[in-house]
Amino acid sequence: MQVAALYAGKPAPLGPRKALSAICKQPAYFLTVHQDRTDEDTQANKRLHGGPEKVLHQYSLAGYELIKQHYPALAEQAIAGSIGENLTVEGMTDENVMIGDVYTFGEVVVQVGAPRAPCNKINQRFNTPNLDRFTGNHGITGWYYRVLQTGIIHTGDGVSLESRPEHTVSVGELMRSVYNPDYFARASHYVDLEVLDDEWRGKCEKAIAKSRR
Fold first, then answer.
1. CA–CA distances in Å: residue 213 to residues 144, 175, 190, 205, 210
2. Please, are residues 178 and 200 in contact by the beta-carbon 8 Å criterion?
3. C-alpha span between 86 and 210 (Å, rounded)
4. What is this structure's pTM?
5. What percent of the chain is modeled with pLDDT above 90?
6. Is 63 exposed, middle or buried (0-12, 13-18, 19+ CB in 10 A)?
7. For the segment 46-89, what is each residue's pLDDT rounded down to a tens digit?
8. Per-domain residue ranges for the chain?
9. What is the distance between the alpha carbons of residues 194 and 209, in angstroms, rounded to a whole number?
10. Do the beta carbons of residue 196 and residue 152 sit within 8 Å?
11. Which whole-number Å values give the CA distances from 32 to 38, 45, 112, 124, 142, in the listed order?
12. In terms of Cα–Cα distance, which of 79, 54, 71 is closest to 4?
């Protein structure tokens, strides 16, 4: 596998309230990756985006295809780079990327930390109500990386899976288990996984409680 594209952006007004968002990104030739940020990409809401656990966001081409199948009017808008991600790698999806996976992107080493939580900025970006719910229910929100080794990622760099925890769950399955009511009961299979951080363990606990009502 290799890095097909990189994206970076700066906060700009978005939506009817003109709140700042960096979801609209532009292609980049490289990203300078630190433990808690990249030099080229800036987040508007640093409480929800960025920081050591969310340095890079990746979205799958398969996710875009599913969006376009259900929302044909977005066929020309839902293209790689349009949902606020930093990376495109063909063949990596929410179903075959696991929490805790360690990947190398050129000289940079990263670990999958968690799915991206659905955000209403997606609705505003595509002018499509409830698109965030669609991505959450189907488990196609993409995922965040924490950085284990800093450096520079270039377009065209090789990508390889270095290690995978013995007990883990796919990004998509975890997302559906905490977001889609039809899947809440499944969260009981994942709540005790060591690879989950406290935030997502808490989300699993809430989903389990809701499934028992």
1. 31, 20, 19, 13, 5
2. yes
3. 34
4. 0.93
5. 82
6. buried
7. 555 568 899 999 999 999 999 999 999 999 999 999 999 999 99
8. 5-168
9. 20
10. no
11. 5, 20, 18, 29, 21
12. 79
Quick: pLDDT tens for 158-204: 999 999 999 999 999 999 999 999 999 999 999 999 999 999 999 99
DSSP string for residues in the chain = -B--EEEE---EEETTTTEEE--S-EEESEEEE-SS-BSS---S-TTTS-STT-SEEE--HHHHHHHHHH-GGGTTTS-TTTTS-SEE-TT--TTT-BTT-EEEETTEEEEEEEEPPP-HHHHHHHT-TTHHHHHHHHT-S-EEEEEEE-EEEETT-BEEEEE--SS--BHHHHHHHHH-GGGGGGGGGTTT-TTS-HHHHHHHHHHHHHHT-
77-to-60, 94, 117, 162, 213 alpha-carbon distances in Å: 15, 21, 21, 34, 40
Whether 105 has a pLDDT exceeding 70, the answer reads: yes
Euclidean distance between CA atoms 195 and 192, whole angstroms: 9
Residue whose token pair is 């700066």: 10
CATH 1.10.150.130 fits 5-168, yes or no: no
